[in-house]
Amino acid sequence: MTTTDRVTLYYSPQSRATGTRVLLEELGAPYDLHVLNMKAGEQRKEAYLAINPLGKVPAIRLGDALVTEQVAIFIYLADLFPQAGLTPALNDPCRGPYLRWIAYYGSSFEPAVIDHFMKREPAPITQSPYADYDTMLGALEAQLAKGPYLLGEQFTAADILWGIALSWTMMFGIVPKRDVFVRYAERIAARPAFQRISKADDEMAAQHAAAAGV
C-alpha cells in the first residue's frame, strides 16, 4: 500500500457500516464513500450484489483487495494502519485477547441478540454458537467491568466495534441497560470521531428517507 491508496467504503448511514467509518476516522485513513440508499433498496441491486452477494454493508475495497464482514474489516484496517495504535502487535500479549473479543462479537454476540430480538429459542446449549443469551452477555459484562476499555487501559479498534454495537442494541432494547454497558458505550460515543460521524449519518439518513419517499 502507498500513501496515495484510498479505501473505498461501501456505506449506508445508521447501519453496521457506521462503525467502519468511525474506525477509518480514528485511524486517520484516507477513504471515499460509495453510498447506498438502503431505504431505496440499492443494496439489493445487481451492481452491489456483485460486490457482496449477501447485500450487506459494510464492504471495503483497497486496490485489488475486497473485504466484507465487519469483523474481518476491523482487523484488516487496524492492521493496515498500525501507526494509529489501535491494534496490538503480533508479539503483544494483548493480541490474542484482542482477536478473541473481536471474534466474539461476530460469532457469539450477533447470533445471540438476533435470536433474542426475534424471540426465537436458541439451539441446545451443546450446539449453540453462544451457549445461551445470559451466559454470553455475562462474559462480556465481566470483561468490560475491568475497564475503562475492553483490554483495560488500552483503547483499540475492538472498542469502536463494541461501543457502537452496545449503543444501538441498548437503544432498541435488545441488550439491557446495565451500568457497565451504559458507561462503556457513553465513553466510546464521547469520542470526536463518533460525534462527527453520528451527525453526518443523521443528515445522510434524512436525505435518503426523503429521496425514497419514506
Can you tell me about this structure?
With 214 residues, the chain is of the alpha+beta class. It has two domains: 7-85, Glutaredoxin (3-Layer(aba) Sandwich), CATH 3.40.30.10; 95-192, Glutathione S-transferase Yfyf (Class Pi), Chain A, domain 2. It contains eight helices and four strands, in the order E-H-E-H-E-E-H-H-H-H-H-H. It has helices at residues 17-27, 46-49, 70-80, 95-117, 133-144, 157-171, 179-189, 192-211, and strands at 7-11, 31-35, 59-62, 65-68. The chain has a four-stranded mixed sheet, covered by helices on one side. Helix 3 runs antiparallel to helix 4. The longest helix is centred in the middle third of the chain and has 23 residues, at 95-117. The radius of gyration is 17 Å and the shape is globular. The model has no long low-confidence stretch (mean pLDDT 95).
Key attributes of the depicted protein:
214 residues; alpha+beta; Glutaredoxin; Glutathione S-transferase Yfyf (Class Pi), Chain A, domain 2; 2 domains; four-stranded mixed β-sheet; 8 helices; 4 strands; globular; transferase; Glutathione S-transferase; Glutathione_S-Trfase; Thioredoxin-like_sf; EC 2.5.1.18
